[in-house]
Amino acid sequence: MFDYTFRWHQALRSLPQMLEGALVTMEIALLSMAIGIAIAVALTLFRLSGLRALAAIATVWVETRATHRRCSRSTWCISAWAASGCTCRPICRC
User: Fold this and answer.
1) Is the per-residue pLDDT at 5 higher than 60?
2) pTM
């Protein structure tokens, strides 16, 4: 039905650029994780500090971000539920 031949020579010729792209992807991922961990540690220290202003700022940041994640996750779940054609009520809600 399908007559397709993979062209290995073109893939191998592009291998250096693909490996360079994979390296950039790994660098971005590691940098993102390092920044995320640094922010998380700072917010934790702010929340545990005796300074009420810092603790309040950190608490507001954490609680609003957590609510946003729950809502976006719930929105995805409800969208997937609706796309499936199910007529029952969704379980996941904000």
Assistant:
1) yes
2) 0.58
Q: Which residue has the tokens 């191998």?
A: 12
Token output for 18: 């693909």
Domain boundaries, the chain: 9-83
**Reduced to 3 DSSP states, what percent helix, strand and coil does the chain have, rounded to the nearest 5?**
75, 0, 25
Helix (H, G, I), strand (E, B) or coil at 90: coil
CA 61, CA 7: separation in Å to the nearest integer? 51
3-class state of residue 20 by DSSP: helix
CB of 90 closer than 8 Å to CB of 78:
yes
pLDDT tens, residue by residue, 57-69:
998 888 887 665 5
Contact 30, 18 (CB under 8 A): no
- Which residue reads 């994640």 in tokens? 69
For position 41, what pLDDT does the model report? Answer: 95
